[in-house]
Every structure is written in C-alpha cells, then in structure tokens.
Write a structure and sequence with these properties.
The structure is a single chain. Helices cover 8% and strands 42% of the residues. The protein is mostly beta strands. A hairpin with a 4-residue loop joins strand 22 and strand 23. The protein is elongated, with a radius of gyration of 33 Å.
Length: 391
C-alpha cells in the first residue's frame, strides 16, 4: 500500500495547474499507465500434489492451466538437472518429453498468464517411487572402442520386456556424420540398432541409455543411465566363396589380399550371408559336444579364432587340414585358414587375417549349399532388408 500511495502522490504533483478541475479523472493513474492490483485469473494445476511420495515415473507428472495459458514450466531434480517437456494445446498443458528417474526428488515451477497478461505461479515438489524389481541391459560394443563397419549397437536385457516402445524410446543414438539409425527387437529381451547400410569409416556414435525409471514390464523398472560412445574404423569386408574356396579381403571396396580357405563339408555346410566378427581368440578350445556334434572333435588349441555366429561358426586357423585349403571343403561349418600349432607364425594366412581384423568387421559367405544365417544368430541383422528391420 505504501508503494501505491507514493505513485498517486507523484501523479498529482506532476499535473501542475493543468489538473485543476476536480472531476475525478486521473485517479489511479501514473502518467499514461494504469496500476492494476487485481490478482491473475489464471489457475495452475500440478500433479502429483506437493509433497507426494512414491510417484510413478512414467505418466504421473502433469501440469495444466485454466483461465489462462502456461508461459513457463521448469522441472528439476535435486542436482539441478532439468526434465525436458513441451507446452501444448495452446498453453493449456505441459507434458514431459521423457520419463522420470526412480527414487528421485523433483521440484516443479509453473507460470501461467491470464487474458490481461497477469501471471500466476505455482510450485510443487515430490519424490518418485523406489522399484521393488529392476532390469538391466548388457550392451556391445564397449564404451570407447573402435569397431568395424558392420557392428550394431546391441542390448540384451536380463528380464523380458513387455513395453518395448517405452524402452526403445529411452535409448537415443546420435552419429557424426548424421545417419538414420533404427532399432529392431529380437524376441522380448534383445534390441539391436543399425543404419540402413554399413557404417561409414570414421563415424562417431554416441548412445544414451536413459533406462533409469522406465517400466519395461509391470512393476519392473530400468536402473541404468549411461552414455556409450564408439568409433567406426576402416571399411573391411571379406568375401568367402565356397565354390572357389577362396576369401577376398577388401578395404574400401578394393581387394587387398586373397586367401585359400576350407569351409563346411557336405552335410556340415557353412551358413550363407553377412556375418559380423564378435569375438577374437589367439587360441581357444573347440569341442563338438557344445554345438551338437557329440564326439566328433575336441581341439584345445585352435589358433586365431574369430566368432561369426552364436551357434558356433568361427573363421579360424587350422593346422590339421593338410592340403584342404583352396582345394576341398573339410570343416564342420567353420571357415578355416592355414595356420600352425601354437599360433606362433605371424606369416601364416590365419595370423595375417587375424591381425588385420577387428570386432565388427564383416565376413560374407556365398555359394554355400546351406541357408542364409538367421539375423539373430550372432550380430547378423544385416541379413534383413531395411524394410523388415524397421517393422
């Protein structure tokens, strides 16, 4: 009231002799502007209510205005991190663009203006629920790694997901240079991401796993919030021709080496299709019992082995194959290259290929009598068309 009185006094003194008539005009005025002490007619509503506990992370946060329009909504957690959102419906409501984290306190400040421009502000705070059951995802490739052009980003969840849209929405992928990347579900526990064609050499990929608070299935919430970055290395694709029994290694589409190979013998044919190297072992044990070939082989020191499928297909060194390389197919489905026992000879064809390969490189097998490898047998989604992948 004191401030209003000073304003009225100043207006009366400033009028001079021109305001001599006492007709009531000019009362409540300060120069040409009017003083309006009426409260805003806008009504701001925030849900959940102030002080609420165990709030759902997915759909509980809502802000709306009546008799006015929202002009500003700020939602922050205890660390000052803002939750993005949008004002929609002509200012009638605000909704978050993402879910909330679990076990987190949030504050909300919302401002609305009525038809006269008068502001009304409301504030609220609440705490989200603490999950009784959670899920996590194991992912590949590793953060900070450099991988070949065929490497997808793959997440395997430890619980079956019944709300795949919510989970997929919580995983964002940015690339430099920009390229469209889409996700594809294999069953309810694996989600892979890839572009339409192989990655371009030098592409930088950043993945935000914002799974904390996502309800992947009834009562089961994600607990991960992590950023993963990896870089695409040189473009190497190797093509194995089962008929010619040769493999051509290409970089940027140019053949840099041709190596004689042996592939699956009749009845044990090698899969056709595009296969991605997922593991590398200087030496490893291969036992037929683990892949349904009981008692047929057990070799404890297979040299320079690289996994192509989850079902047991490798491209590896072979020191027991005699003159098979380039001449006849003798394996149980793997692609074999000449090597030495103990993996000591760096000049052996298998050693050369091993040392010039990285996780994520592509090995293509063609002209085999077997079928095309299943897209989910290893990281081999390249065997699906782009249209199938996006379904």
């Amino acid at each position: 009231m004191l401030a209003g009185g000073l304003l009225l006094a100043t207006a009366a003194c400033g009028g001079g002799s021109d305001s001599g008539s006492d007709d009531g005009k000019g009362k409540g005025e300060a120069g040409s502007g009017k003083v309006d002490n009426k409260p805003s007619q806008a009504v701001v509503s925030i849900a959940p209510k102030d002080g609420a506990k165990s709030v759902d992370t997915m759909d509980a946060l809502k802000v709306s205005a009546s008799e006015g329009k929202l002009s500003e909504v700020v939602v922050k957690d205890a660390k000052g991190r803002a939750i993005p959102g949008k004002i929609t419906d002509g200012g009638a409501r605000w909704t978050p663009s993402t879910h909330l984290a679990a076990s987190t306190e949030y504050t909300v400040r919302a401002v609305a203006k009525d038809s006269e421009g008068r502001e009304k502000a409301e504030e609220s705070s609440f705490t989200t629920l603490t999950p009784q059951a959670t899920f996590t995802g194991t992912f590949t490739p590793e953060d900070g790694s450099k991988v070949g052009v065929g490497m997808p980003f793959s997440v395997r969840f430890d619980r079956g997901i019944t709300d795949p849209d919510a989970v997929e929405k919580a995983i964002s992928i940015k690339t430099e240079p920009a390229v469209e990347v889409e996700g594809h579900w294999f069953g309810n526990d694996r989600l892979d991401f890839r572009p339409e064609e192989y990655w371009k050499e030098g592409t930088k990929v950043t993945v935000d796993l914002n799974l904390d608070g996502v309800e992947g299935r009834d009562g089961v919430y994600g607990e991960q919030k992590k950023t993963v970055s990896f870089t695409i290395g040189r473009n190497q694709v190797s093509v194995v021709d089962v008929k010619t029994k040769k493999m051509k290694i290409t970089q940027d589409g140019k053949v840099i080496k041709t190596i004689p190979v042996t592939t699956g013998k009749p009845g044990y044919d090698t899969w056709n299709g595009q296969m991605v190297i997922t593991e590398k072992f200087v030496q490893t044990r291969m036992n037929g019992d683990t892949v349904g070939y009981d008692g047929e082989y057990d070799i404890d020191d297979v040299p320079h082995a690289m996994r192509l499928t989850q079902s047991g297909t490798f491209i590896h060194g072979n020191y027991w194959g005699g003159d098979a390389f380039g001449n006849y197919n003798a394996s149980h489905g793997c692609v074999g290259l000449r090597d030495v026992k103990g993996a000591w000879d760096k000049k052996a064809p298998a050693a050369w290929f091993f040392n010039h390969s990285m996780i994520g490189d592509v090995v293509v097998v063609k002209n085999s009598n077997d079928q095309t490898v299943a897209p989910d047998n290893g990281l081999n989604g390249w065997n699906m068309s782009w249209e199938e992948w996006k379904k």
